[in-house]
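hey can u check if this looks right to u? its 480 residues, i copy pasted from the old doc so theres a chance i mangled smth
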Amino acid sequence: MANRFLADGVSVTNSLVQTKPVSQTVAILGGGFSGAAVAYHLALGGREHTDITVFEPRESIGKGLAYDTADPSHRINVPATRMSLLPDDPDHFARWVEQQAVVADDPDAARPNGDVYPRRGVFGAYVHDQLSPLLQSGAVRHARTEVRSVTKIGGPWEVTASNGETVIADVVVIATTHPAPSAPLRLAQVLAQHPRFIADPLAPGCLDVIRPQDRVLIVGNGLTSADVIASLTRRGHTGSLVSVSRRGLRSRGHAPLTQEPFGDFLNTPAKTALELLVRIRAAIRDAGKSGLTWHAVIDQVRIGGQEIWSHLPVHERRQVVRHLRPYWDVHRFRIAPQVEDVINTALAEGRLQVERAGIGAVRTSGETILVTLAGRGAPVQELAFDAVVVTTGPAHGQIFGQSGWLRQLAADGHVHLDPTGLGLACNARSQALDTKGEPDKSLLIAGPLARGYFGELMGLPQVSEHAVLVAQTVADAISD
């Protein structure tokens, strides 16, 4: 504490002892949506003498990987009325969009049913705009640097950044995102030096190397795959596209009309993964009899997701992750209608093929990439490509591989993996659990890395709601 204040918050002036209020310092590691939302709600909580520093190497906080994009093909994948920094005010973003006229030059944003799907960068600008007054006033400070180390020094934490800055924090919030996709080993080994092997599809300008006529293999069929196809199409790409995944599932679109959530999953929560699956299927059949689509049932499960998850024993959560998560993801995380139109057109024209297969042998002949695809019950085939883009989901097993300071926290016993393998172990207040299972009220997990305990933390409004919980937990900790 001495580097922030004199001992015990006391200074000596003209031989008179004056007591000053001692600040509490909160370090938030990661300034994407989760970190920004925690800082926002904590700063607006009315607590005086709280220093909030957000460590984020990007130019602005609030965008992160998801919303730090200028590609006009990248859109939020739910209507604007369901995207808000304020859980109690779901229309907050939609009103901001209208007030700022940010889609005035984007005629494709609005759909015939009245829903608006702005470009993703617009949402990032909205979050930053909400934080701006707090940044300008000093209520929140943006340290534009990466974190190098996080060390416990008695009670507080010493957070050291790559630029040499050190902050002594009473509370640390880990708000980093989930790990980046991991390329299948065969592809990574053979194509590491290939000029058109794209292992990180979110890197700025990564698609520039793909030529209009290139034959492209896309590994993965989720939201990122859809974004890549939309981006390539906008750029004038006319070559063939093959999108491959082990199950051949691709992200679904939205219902044509707005529907109320349907089904009851909370009065008597399922106790097993199989029971949950059976009940969801039964609800979808019942919804169909009422003229509703599966969307209404999945929306109901999403709304009650955290409570449903909490009633499943850990071994049943593992069953959900292992067997059901791919099916959940493609129904829960839907593609924007504008992107769906592009996908459907590419399929209808025969330019896009969606294959259920795994990656077999990989070799090159000059710059031509030859990949063997082996599907269940389908003949093994070797196809030729000019480019490969990896769009698989987060490599949850690589959580500690994404940063040295996170590995050190694990080595020191402060954090460990949740038993589901989806994130870091924490409790109902999102306090990190050490290797003995004991919670640390001074170390919290915010956002996707808390997914193992909370179940549904990969989209809004759940991430906003969780940020409020974390901010309140931090406020309670620095009040003690």
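The radius of gyration is 24 Å.
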